[in-house]
Amino acid sequence: MYLIGLTGGIASGKSTVARRLVEHGAVHIDADELARRVVQPGKPALAAIVEGFGQGILDHDGTLDRQKLAEIVFNDDEARERLNAIVHPAVRELTTRLLGKIEGEDPDAVVVYDVPLLVEAAVDHPFDLIVVTSAPKRTQVKRLVEERGFDPNQARARVDAQVDNTERVAVADVVIDTDGSMAHTMSQVDALWHRIKQERARA
C-alpha cells in the first residue's frame, strides 16, 4: 500500500486534488467524514463530548449540533484541546482499521488520506508522501465567499484561525499550487500520479 497524506488550508483545493487522484485510481479517505462518523449517536466519543461540554451541544434528535460545539471551541483554545483529545484518537483508530481493510483487499492500493489538520493534530500515520495544496489567503477567502456563501469577515476569520501555510509547506514532499487555472492544478496532480507510478514500478 502507498499512503499519501493530503493537507492544506480551508478552500485551498484539497477536494479537487483528491478527486483527480481518485480518477487515476487512488482510494480516498476523508478525515472530516471520519470525524463525523466517530461522533454519531451511540459512539463513545459522543458520550465523552456530552460529558465534557454538556447536553446543550446535542440536537433535539440526540445528534451532535456541530454548529453549537464549533461556537464553543472556536475562540477557546482550552476547550478546543479538550475536544481534540476526544475526537483525534477516535479518528486515528478508525483510520487505522480502514487502512488495514484496504491493504487486505489490495496490497498495491494507493490511498489518499485527506486530512486538513495533519500538521495541527500531529497526524503521524506512516505516509509515503505528504502533499500540500497551497493558495494565497485572498484566494481562500474569495472561494469561501463565492463557493460556500461565507460572509467576508467570517471567511477571513476562518482562514486566519488556521495554522500558517509555511508550517504545512515545511512538512510537504510535494506542494500543489492551486491559485491558477483548474488545468494548471490538474496538470500538477497528473504529474504527481505519474511520479508515484514510476517510483512504485522501480521499487
From TrEMBL:
It catalyses: 3'-dephospho-CoA + ATP = ADP + CoA + H(+). ATP binds at A11, S12, G13, K14, S15, T16. The keyword Kinase applies. The keyword Cell membrane does not apply. GO terms for molecular function: ATP binding; dephospho-CoA kinase activity. Keywords: ATP-binding, Coenzyme A biosynthesis, Cytoplasm, Kinase, Nucleotide-binding, Transferase. Pathway: Cofactor biosynthesis; coenzyme A biosynthesis; CoA from (R)-pantothenate: step 5/5. Coiled coil: none annotated. It comes from the Bacteria. It holds the Pfam family CoaE. One of its GO terms (biological process) is coenzyme A biosynthetic process. GO terms for cellular component: cytoplasm. Catalyzes the phosphorylation of the 3'-hydroxyl group of dephosphocoenzyme A to form coenzyme A. This is Dephospho-CoA kinase. It comes from Agromyces ramosus.
